[in-house]
Amino acid sequence: MKNTTKENDWDDFERGESENSISFAEIVHIVKKLLPYIIICGFIGVVLAWFYYKSQEPQYVINSKILIKDDQGKASGAMAGADMFKEMGLFSGASSVDNELEIITTYSILDKVVNDLQLNVKIKKNQFFNSKEKKTYQTPWDVKIISYKNNAFDDNLSYNYNLFTKDGKLWYINEDKKIFVSENKPTSFDFGVLVFEKKSTQVTPDGEWSLEVQKPSQTVENYSQAITPSIPNKNTSIITLEMKSPNPARGKMVMNKLIDTYIREGVKDNNSINDSTLFFINDRLRDVEGELQDVEVAIQNFKQKNDLTNIDDQVKLLLDIYKDNSQKSLDAEVQLNVITSLENHLRSGNTHVIPASLLTQDASLSGIINQYNLLVVQKEKLAKSATPENPLVKSLNSQLSSLRNELLGSISTTRRSYATVAGQLRSEANQNLSKVRQMPLQERQFLDISRQQAIKQELYLFLLKKREETELGKSSTLSNTRVIDYARVSDKPVAPRGIIILSIGMLLGAILPFLVYFIRQKSNLKLKTKKELNNHNKIPIIGEIGHQEGTAIFEVKNNPRSPLAEQFRILRTNLHFYQNKDKGTCLMLTSSMPGEGKTFISINLAATLAANKQVKVLLIGMDLRKPKLASELGLANKKGFTNYAINDATLDEVIYDLDGFSNLKVMPSGPIPPNPSELLMSKECEEMFNLLRERFDFIVIDCPPTVVTDYQIISNYCDISLYSVRVNYTNLKQVEMANEIYRTNKLPRMNLVINDFIPEKYDSYNSGYYSQYGYYETEEEVKKKWWEKFFKS
Known about the structure:
- The protein is α/β, with parallel strands linked by helices.
- The longest helix is centred in the middle third of the chain and has 46 residues, at 391-436.
């Protein structure tokens, strides 16, 4: 039944072992203990944070806002309000704020900004805490890059030079060489050629500067990460640009240049249809102009050859009749020529837009061409921010292919229609020409040449008119972007924030002692506090022995008013509950390993028991392998238990008196035997304990640790077993081994004795328990200052 109860208790202990909460009292105790270190580390943290704060450059925020207009705003300005330009087919694709959000900080736009402003060149004034970048117009020079050397940035992403001025002259250090810089003249550096242009309004002060020339692509990447575009509200088409910079003037200049470049590129993109139309018209004008010149030369040669100056009235009459048919045939031939040119242009695989404005008489075909042009523009727009594998690009390519086939079919149908009309008109013209056959051959030849001249001239004038219209539309094209706010700089720096940095420094400094403390606590596996012992122990605790200052072996005898002596008295009181009434009580002290205070506790416990003059106490040293009790008491060369066990001495011969004690006797272990376990199991040993129980009230045995089997043999002769654990010495794993001994009943009435604890470290709840009564305070402790008592408690 006893074993079952102990098993149940052990299961409860296993379930509660994981509970490890820290109480408020423990936290207060830790804070009081670490308070001096917290103050010192907090102060050091503030000092280091102040140095860090002074080493940082002030950061200003630059903001700007732009509005992305709707589809009507993206079209060219002239055709947005004029019907005569609608036929030109110059409408742009649909607007997308998300696309513009990505485009505005793309590499191509930022690369133009960096190259135009030469942002990869920086000059800083060297100072004690930091090197502050000066505004462009505050430096004594304007630095311009003339050229880069080939492969200049293959090995280095940036070049840094130390500049210094003395007596108005500029020098730079390159590989420990001092090189003079001629102002306003090209100077060769490792990466290329620079020019330092002296500002007439600035006086060059003596001092040290630093020049940094970064790889342009790296500068573009830095600004791409520094500039943050965002859409503050999804219900609007407003894009907000934000950037932090230590140089507010430079940052403002970069932001405004970025907006201007973005707008310029947007206008250029919106004019792509106009540019394609002009390219097509100019190409056709060159061909038609050459053909018209050939016809005019043929007419001139014909008249000169045939000496023709005037035409007969009869010819005039026939020509009047022919004129009406010729005009209609002329219109049909012009449209047929345009249709043929467009078909050839489309079949050539050219991906440029198609000028729908040339087909003024076919609205349905113009509509298809407009759809085709819109898809071409959308594809070119999307190609700036997407790859060819993008699903949207593939979708547009598919739609373009489908429309191209549909367009070729419509053009083919229209061409046949115009060919039919032209054929009918040509048939009517042939009927009129049959009447002219009676005229002289020269007049009929002149009529053919004149007809060719009229066709070419009409086509030439038509193309000239369309070119002027396209040029006018291009000049009036507007951007789809409206600048709401150009770059604005914050009045005060947003970083670094001194109060926050100093607060963080102080907080980190204050946390450091706690961090070190808890790391040491977690890395130290030895028993440190009573709470740790409670979390790992199920053995009843019968006594707690505090830390002893000094090396006196008889502490209870030398200082009977000390807290340590009182702790042994408490232990003695607790042992009386286990005392046998009819015979002597035998108790043993053991531990997990040497050095845990078994001998010290045995001696002082025996002396405390012997303080009662009516009680007879015997102290036995039973550590036969590494005896220590005899040497502590000055009995190292005396006979002891070993001599009695081998019948070399009688029982009275191995029991000695102890100076200062009339009722305390000592039996040393004697010489170290070769077979200690066999001696302890001998019949002589059993008889000895039976005799001793008759003669003494208490028998205190200093046993070997549990690393050897001797302790289990000795436990067979004992009534009580005390297991010693030492604070900051005993490993928690060894406490668990003691728990296993207790759980398996290997020792009789096993109890735990805690040794060498310091109250303020071992138990935060009762740290002042043993010194709170004036009975235990020394005169020096009474005179202590209140803050000394505060930190001690």
